[in-house]
Structures are given as structure tokens and as C-alpha cells.
Amino acid sequence: MASTVIAIDGPAASGKSTAARNLAVRLGIPYINTGSLYRAIAWKAGQKGISTRDEAALRAMLADTVIRYAVPADGGNPDIEIDGVFPGQALRAPEIAQGASNVAAIPFVRAFTLQIQRDAAKNQLVVMEGRDIGTAVFPDAKYKFFLTASPRVRALRRLAQGGETPDNATVDSVAAEIAERDKQDMNRSVAPLKQADDAVFIDSSGMTAEDVLDAMVLCIREGGDA
Ligand code: DC
User: Fold this and answer.
1) Which of 6, 101, 120, 169 is the most buried (most CB within 10 A)?
2) Helix (H, G, I), strand (E, B), or coil: what is residue 49?
């Protein structure tokens, strides 16, 4: 049986979160953001003064870390809980993104996160968003989408979002930061960002969020019940 996951992968700021959230609402199922997992590890490292490239220190830190997806007390989608705390919006701070990409390139970190992601989708249909959901985490997902947009459109969207870019950010500086992160995410040795052979490719550069949602819903209808 195909796994009970709808996988949405793609590069940074490609509109995955919006698409995943919208699709989950439309289908009445939970939405799980897996970037938050790597962001939470980078966040804790920052709190402890550990470099996100210091593998020995990160290994020791993870041995003493409990991370899971849990539904917050006020309800909503499962969110990252790390050592009993929901960092929430703190994970979206601009300085966290590159650190998340750094820790995500380390093989033992990915081994640590794999089961957490699989547990989050146990016994329920979910929309899960990330870089390697359709290739490594749930290669047997029944529905897979690979979402992208041009670098300029992605930079503009990220800037318009606010809160996730430094105060002095420009389209060019955001585009450069995104390009740097994509390069690292695509070239790492374990579970690099790439389109699964059986994923539906969507370039959302000229599409609205509603267009993207409609395209995904159409695929799912054509494929039968999710
Ligand atoms: O989606 P995001 O920008 O929040 O992800 C932050 C970083 O986490 C991203 O640069 C790469 C990493 N990541 C990953 O390697 N695998 C995932 N499934 C999700 C995110």
C-alpha cells in the first residue's frame, strides 16, 4: 500500500509552505513542515553557542535532545517541540535558515530526523513538505509534487513575506541567499534536493496560490482518493 503522505518538495521559498497549508486545509488533514526540524536543531545549537558545522558538538547535543511533532495546546497543525518547548516563530528568524541547511547536510543528523518524520505521519493522511520527502522519507508516497519558481519570483515572495529576511534585504541579496542554500541542499551527499522521478512538476512563477492548489487538487482527483 502506498504511504499515507502527500509529498511536496522543492527549493527554498518556492511556495511549498503555502501550497502545503492550502492543500491540507482543502483536504481537511494535517500539514507538516519538515524544514522546521532542521531549523529547530540549528536553533538549539545557536542557544548553546554550538556552530552548525561542528559535527562532534552537534552529535553530543542531539544525544541529549528530544524532538517530535506535537499538536500545540491551542490546536492546529503538528509543530516542532524540542526539549518540551515549541520555538514557533523563532525558527523563522533569518539567521536560522543557513544553519538549518548546514545541519541538514550532515548524515547523522538526517538519520536522526528520518524516524521523527515517519512517526509524524503514522496512521494518518498528511501533507508533508520539505526537500526529500518524495525521494527519501516517503519514497512510496501516493502523491508527490515538486514545486519551484524562478529565482527572482522566489526572492520577491520571500521579501513580501516579511520577518524571514534581514531588515536591509534587497531582491538581489535574498536571491543570493536562496541560491547559496539551494546549492548546498542540492549538492549534499545524503538525500539531496532533487525531483523524484514520479513527482508532478509545478513551476509556480506565473501562478497564484489558488492556481497551484487547483493544479494539485486536480492531480489528486485524477489519481483517485488520497
Ligand atoms: O524549508 P525550509 O527553508 O524551512 O528548510 C530549511 C533547511 O532545512 C533547508 O535549507 C534544507 C533543510 N531541509 C532538508 O534538508 N530537508 C527537508 N526535508 C526540509 C528542509
Assistant:
1) 6
2) coil
